[in-house]
Design a protein that fits this description.
The protein is an alpha+beta fold. It has one domain (4-149, 163-195): HIT-like (HIT family, subunit A, 2-Layer Sandwich), CATH 3.30.428.10. Helix content is 28%, strand content 12%. Helix 2 packs across helix 3 (171-197). The longest helix is centred in the last third of the chain and has 27 residues, at 171-197.
Length: 201
């Protein structure tokens, strides 16, 4: 049950719900399991217009139960958010099928973030409730690359949780990074498909 104190605004004004609605799952997708038609979950370029939402959203993944997009206030280059498609406030609200889909995509997206940024160390952070530093009351995981040289952040105790000094994502940079991530994600899925279908010795 949703605690009213955890709702900063109603779900119909949730920015993550707006992104999910702007990047729906096309009806051609079968989705009989998380492993069917996964490549279709990566939007093609004509489906990836950042201006479908305001502010712009740089979407990397639009799967059945999960959407992934760049943080518009990134801590580091390539800071990616992975959210439930449906409005769920806390992890305890997430349903079993959504959990399976999230579990399928998180490691793949972590590899994509590492490959695109060239940074092999990263945090995966998920906050539940305002006292736990959750700013948007919609379940989402942060994949935050940790390069050798970190930007100077004033409040270091909060850097793991996404607070501190952060600059807005430049639209041109966002479009470029998201495009590269989508390409890398397609490549990752292709490799996984080949491995899954390789003849067993």
């Amino acid at each position: 049950m949703v605690n009213e104190l955890d709702l900063h605004y109603p779900p119909d004004t949730c920015p993550f719900c707006n992104i999910a609605a702007a990047f729906p799952v096309p009806s051609r997708r079968l989705w009989t399991s998380p492993f069917v038609d996964v490549a279709d979950a990566v939007p093609i370029e004509r489906e990836s217009d950042p201006e479908k939402t305001s502010p712009s959203s740089f979407v990397v993944l639009a799967a059945k139960d999960v959407v992934a997009f760049l943080d518009i206030l990134p801590m580091t280059k390539g800071h990616l958010l992975v959210a439930t498609r449906e409005h769920r406030v806390k992890v305890s609200d997430v349903e079993a099928e959504e959990s399976r889909d999230m579990g399928f995509w998180l490691p793949i997206l972590a590899r994509v973030v590492s490959q695109v940024t060239g940074v092999t160390d990263y945090n995966i952070v998920q906050n539940n409730g305002a006292r736990a530093a959750q700013v948007v009351p919609h379940v989402h995981f942060h994949i935050i690359p940790r390069p050798e040289t970190m930007p100077q952040i004033q409040n270091k105790s909060w850097t793991m949780f996404g607070r501190g000094q952060r600059d807005e994502l430049d639209d041109e940079d966002g479009a470029s990074i998201a495009k590269e991530m989508r390409q890398m994600l397609r490549s990752e899925l292709s490799i996984m498909d080949r491995r899954a279908n390789a003849p067993k010795l």
